[in-house]
Design a protein that fits this description.
single chain, Rossmann fold, 3 domains, 7-stranded parallel sheet, 6-stranded mixed sheet, globular, binds NADP nicotinamide-adenine-dinucleotide phosphate, threonine biosynthesis, methionine biosynthesis, Semialdehyde_DH_NAD-bd
Length: about 375
């Protein structure tokens, strides 16, 4: 009989992209599925091939969850912390595939990104590993973009600045930005076409955002017309947790013998979807720009090297162009004046696809095909 797979968090940002992708790739044909919720018990499950669901099931029903062969959770860290632990205590022997960070650094889990670490995943399945976790979005996108350099053991260190979209913080982040656009438009539209000086309009724009948050939301910071150079909680060394993940998760995924140093500043920007990253890369030997480009583009079929000229870069290296695709364009590749082994590169990737849902979808298929 086909394996029974339970989906939790399928309604959220990552979950809905995963569901869409599973349907487009006709993956539901390979297993039976059932759908859970933490909040919508009266809701209707999605219509997919081989679904045994007649209604949404309670995502906290341990007796039901324990009957599943595979659980795919895109619900978030709090849910995983609570439910995974209970299932394990109750002797559950199934496979857990997760989008959240809670289990990533556990000794008995593998962070999955199969174009980079398929061998570790296959070995893990053979050795009885049951927990497979998607990586942090910027980590996965960086490894997809620069995988050819890591594979050839060329990287000494990377300093990175990220430009992360609001959907990276979930559906609420998207809704907040859209509400801010609506709010500002309502304030500005009476003056359009321009009945005031452009500086007066700028004051209305800035003032309406500041007032909205000072009065209504108090502690929150507007993201429209703004940026926030802080993502996730603080670590003791001055990093944010998002920045800490860069090195920790990269080294775990690569199973590196020598710790590869990765650090930088993670920044939230008012873009709906896709994360962009600007890299300063120190290699351990002097290679040509052509070799650099050839190494990264031959690593996986999704990397596309973008010519270093205005037209190519502006047309192809931006979030709007990349949203909803698996493309990983890498451009602005140049040697830095700092020294012969120093390169810059800029990459954009859909953090809901390669940064979240796609490694999980592929992991589910790897499991289904190997059990
Ligand atoms: P999310 O959009 O906030 O969804 C999480 C859950 O919130 C949903 O499954 C849903 O659960 C509930 N929810 C409440 N209001 C909702 C609404 N208006 N629309 C849809 N769902 C709503 O979170 P997410 O961004 O998908 O993240 C899930 C996990 O993946 C997190 O651990 C996150 O850190 C991780 N992750 C996210 C990204 C990203 O780019 N967003 C990337 C990598 C990893 P019920 O149906 O049970 O109510």
């Amino acid at each position: 009989m086909k394996k029974l797979v339970g989906f939790i968090g399928w309604r959220g940002m990552v979950g809905s992209v995963l569901l869409d992708s599973l349907q487009k790739n006709n993956d539901f044909i390979g297993f039976r599925s059932v759908f859970f919720t933490t909040s919508q018990l009266c809701g209707t499950p999605p219509h997919v091939t081989n679904s045994i669901a007649t209604r949404l099931e309670d995502a906290y029903n341990i007796e039901y969850l324990i009957t599943l062969d595979i659980i795919v959770s895109c619900q978030g860290e709090r849910y995983t912390t609570q439910v995974y632990t209970k299932l394990k205590k109750n002797g559950w022997k199934g496979y857990w595939i997760d989008a959240s960070s809670y289990l990533r650094m556990h000794d008995d889990s593998i962070i999955v990104l199969d174009p980079v670490n398929l061998k570790s995943i296959q070995l893990g399945i053979e050795q009885g590993v049951k927990t497979f976790v998607g990586g942090n979005c910027t980590v996965s996108l960086m490894l997809m973009a620069l995988g050819g350099l890591f594979k050839n053991h060329l990287v000494d260190w990377i300093s990175v600045s990220t430009y992360q979209s609001v959907s990276g913080s979930g559906s609420q982040g998207m809704l907040n930005l859209i509400k801010q656009i609506e709010h500002v438009y309502q304030n500005i539209s009476p003056h359009l076409p321009l009945s005031k000086s452009i500086l007066d309009v700028e004051k209305i724009f800035t003032g309406s955002l500041n007032n909205m948050y000072n009065s209504v939301h108090n502690s929150k910071i507007p993201i429209l017309g703004n940026l926030i150079p802080w993502i996730d909680v603080s670590m003791k060394n001055g990093q944010t947790k998002e920045e800490w993940k860069g090195s920790a998760e990269t080294n775990k995924i690569l199973n590196s013998k020598k710790n590869i140093l990765i650090d930088g500043t993670c920044v939230r920007i008012p873009v709906l979807r896709c994360h962009s990253q600007s890299f300063t890369i120190k290699l351990n030997r002097d290679i040509s720009i052509r070799e650099f480009e050839s190494l990264i583009s031959s690593h996986n079929p999704w990397v596309k090297v973008i010519d270093n000229n205005f037209n190519s870069v502006t047309a192809q290296l931006n979030p709007l162009r990349v949203s909803g695709t698996l493309d990983i364009p890498v451009g602005r590749i140049k040697k830095l004046n700092i020294g012969k082994k120093y390169f810059s590169a800029f990459s954009v990737g859909d953090q809901l696809l390669w940064g979240a849902a796609e490694p999980l979808r592929r992991m589910l298929n790897i499991l289904i095909n190997s059990l």
